[in-house]
Fold this protein.
Amino acid sequence: MYKILLISDTHGNLDAINEKAIQTKADFVIHAGDFGFYDETSIYHLSQRELRLLVTHSPFREKYNVTKLTEREKLIDIIYNHQLLGDFPDYITQKKQFVAPIYAVWGNHEDVQVLKNIRKNPCVNNLHLLDEEHFYKFHTNDELEFTLYGLGGNFLASKKLFDKPIAGGCGKVWSTLHQFGTLYKQIEHKGSPSIFVSHVSPGKEALLTRLITSFMPNLWISGHMGAPFTCVWNQFTIREMNEALDWLQVDIDFIETQYKLGLLSEEAAMAYELIKQPIPKKDYWFKKMWNINLPDIKDGYAILNFDNKRFSLETYSRGMQF
C-alpha cells in the first residue's frame, strides 16, 4: 500500500511540505509545480514582472504599494527583507531536509538556471525531479504496481513548443515538443497503472490533452489554477461525447509547417506524430483518464491511496471564505 500526498503551488514555502507529510504520514509526495526553485542568485535572473509577482502574491502585499512603476531595486529590497525567494536555498545547502521523498515537476514560475543546476548536480536529499529524463517505477514484493512520470512548466501552443529545453528565462519556464517525445520513449507499458503530472491543467489545454492521451495514464495530476478546492473530473463528466471529441480537434497547422520543413528534432517529430493521430471513436483512452487539479498548498491538498491495485482519493480544503 502507498499513501501519497498530492500538493501544488508552494511558491517557495517548502517547510509546508514537511508539515503536511508528517501530518498525513505520507509515504511520498507528488508536487505539481510552482515549487519555488529559486536560490540566492535568482534575484538577478528574474524579470521585473516576476519580482513584482513575488511581492503581490506574498502575505506582505498590503504593506507595500507595488505597481508596474515600482523600481527594481525597491522590489529586490522587499524580497530580501521578507525572504520571498522561499526556503529552497536552505534545502540546497542541506541546512534543512525533506522528511519524505518528493517527486516534483516545475511550474511556470521558476528560475531556469536553478533547474539546470539541480538537473546537472542533484544536491537536495529526497527531491526527485519529474521531467523528460526521469521516469519512476513503484514495486511491491518485486511486482510492478504503477509508474510515475511528468513534465512541468507552462504549455504554450505557439512557436515556443519548438524551443530547446529547458526552455524559458527571467523566471518563466515552458515545455517543448522535444521533451514530450523524449518522455514518450521511456514509457514501456502504456495502459498499465500510471500517473502523469503536469503543472498546467488538462481542462485548459486541448492540444496537451490530445498529446497525453497517447501516453495512456490513469490519473493526471496538475496545479496552476489556484482554485479553492481540489477538482476531480473526466472529460465525459463535463462534456457530451461529440463535444469532447470536437474540443480535441485543435489547430496544429503551425506544427505541421515546421514538420514539413524538417525543422523538428526526432523527439519533437515523434510528439507531433502522436498529436496528429486520428482520435479513435471507440475505446479512446481519455475516456478512462481521470484528472486531479490541486489548489495552492495554503488552500488544500489531497491523499492518493494505492492498495490492492486500486487508486482511491481523499481531498482536504480550507474552503471558500466569504
